[in-house]
Amino acid sequence: MILPSSNSNSSPSANVGRSTKGSNPVHAASLVDPAAHPPALLQLLNIKIEKHVIEKLLTFPHTDYVADCVSEAVDYALGRPWSPRSSHTSLYNADFAAFASVVLSCAEVTPGTLLVALSYIARARAHLTIFAEEWARECVFLGAVIVASKYTQDSTLRNVHWAACSGVFGARDIGRIEREFLEVLNWNLGVHEADLMAHHEGLSSACAKATRASRALQAGPPAYNMYLAPPPYTHRRRSSLPGLEALPSPQSSLPSLTPSPRTPSPYP
């Protein structure tokens, strides 16, 4: 299980890897001996979320694993069939990918936080109710990342800083997104190794392709140059952006993330 870090004064990047607690080795993300974790999980926790990795995770055609996870959850909530190769998904993912890349980079999101956020998105998928598609991906992604960050880190960004990282939402917007995502999760924030390992294949594949593309860039003219460049970041803060504390309406530019009728949860 991923637990809060024991060092409240450390930077986010310092929470990846090993630390010591007394004479026993302790992994900073789980606070237990790394030997207790399967090697595949340690591989995920040691992913470096740097620029070329973020671009590969979010913008490489048909392998945008993180963007696909979010889009699948949103399409499911909207009752729409989802396909990673559909033109509809590709168009929406391109713009959303730029937004998510900026948030991951600006907030210095750690691998452990990203893994927990992906687990929350998968868990929330069956309980989301979304009435307006515009901004839905951004709200689901931000809600998952913010909740995951606050659950796994002793020291995390304030809502005003998350708002600045988003470049779109205000601090009050961030507060509502967080509260509504917590309600969708029914405040059940615990995660298990199986929740994290469900993303091993997708994340590992994306990172491997990112590494190969990065080496190709260093070796000569890149074969994937058209893919590596992130799409233009077109999101802009609008003066007409409604406050999220208002009741949702068909005219609202931002969706309300509300829980659907809940089935018994497998999590205690």
Automatic annotation (TrEMBL):
It comes from the Eukaryota. One of its GO terms (cellular component) is cyclin-dependent protein kinase holoenzyme complex. InterPro entries: Cyclin-like_sf, Cyclin_N, Cyclin_PHO80-like. Residues 14-23 have a biased composition (Polar residues). Gene3D superfamilies: Cyclin-like. Residues 1-29, 235-268 are annotated as: Disordered. It holds the Pfam family Cyclin_N. This is Cyclin N-terminal domain-containing protein.
